[in-house]
Give the backbone structure.
Amino acid sequence: MKHQKPLRWEILRREGISSLLRDFLKHRGEVNGCVPFRNGWVIWTILLVCWGCSAVEIIKESSQPTRPLWISQFPKSDADLFFIGANSGAHTLEDGENGARKDALSKVAEYLGIDIKAELDMIMTEHDQSLKEHLKAKTEAFIKEAGIVDTYYEKTTRVEKNYKMEHYNVYLLLKYPKTEAQKELLRRETEPLQKAQAAYKVYQSGKTQIQQGHYQQALQFFREASDILKQLPNVVSLDQEIASTKELSTLLKSEEQSAIQHLRRVVILLQEQTSEKEQGSSAFGTSLQQVLTKHQFSFVEHSIRQSASDQGFDAYIGQEGEALKALQTQGIQYLIVGQAHATLSSTSLNNHFYKAQGMIKVFSTQTGEALLTLPVNGKGYHRDHTHASLNALSEAGKAVGELLVNELLSKGLI
């Protein structure tokens, strides 16, 4: 049952007004309380001010008649540990209770050395899903074992005319079994080794993918293993062919870089047409390769260039993936094909303005699938028609190159 103690200032109000009047009369030197009429407005002003001040009412309520002893003194028990959570100035009782519970749980977690958020947000691979579920279950069990023993709140309401403001101070007593605490502390001691071993297992999965030529999958494994190691504050010894997590971290960086280099080995087949004639890759292809080189791509020359040019890119690739199969055997991941042409847009002040348009496609050599289809667009100008068209093609190559890299990165393909 709530315990209510309204604080009304009736006595203070009366005494305050009497004191003010008495002091005023004394100051004016009046006798027996006889005040000239000309000073009446001063008295009325004092009365109105005092009445306005006295209109504020403070009401205090509490969930129990007296504060529980556990707020100032921890209970003692052979079976449980106790933690107190508090939240002050909450606008609602629900907010106050949630804040107090969170405060109490954080104290339990601090005692046990647990980072709750990190535990729940662990990123593991599909191969290590069981470990992820194990860690998540452990954290949920920790929260479940923490039981609420008692709660206490104090509510303060300030009422002034038509305005009312409330706030709550909430206290919560939480208990946690000592046996569970001992288990959790033991788990925390062994957890670094478990994480280190999990990272090593993921690393081995990545190496297996490398042997099979699956560099994209390998890259994902290496990055996930690195993420696991980042959760370890200290170096952990490994009873494996790798001595410690420090050595494993170095190997992961090397393997990740190697996988990226393999993923960015490409063959580019382009056709472009200037204002005068159709030709092989020049301005468009050069600017495209410059952008890709900046992003650590490497380019492989291949004999399919001439065959593809003679038969048409799509037709050649479509013949049961002959070109793609040939490239895959050489460890090339992607084939980039495309075409661009420049046309006159306008002429002004002796300058010729050209626009370049076209399309490029990115094929996976492993699946034969067209992973990306991107538009080619660019503009350029010059007093000479040929230079103007080449400028447009060059700008188009730069633009589509950046777009290509961003798309591959966003899809996790490189």
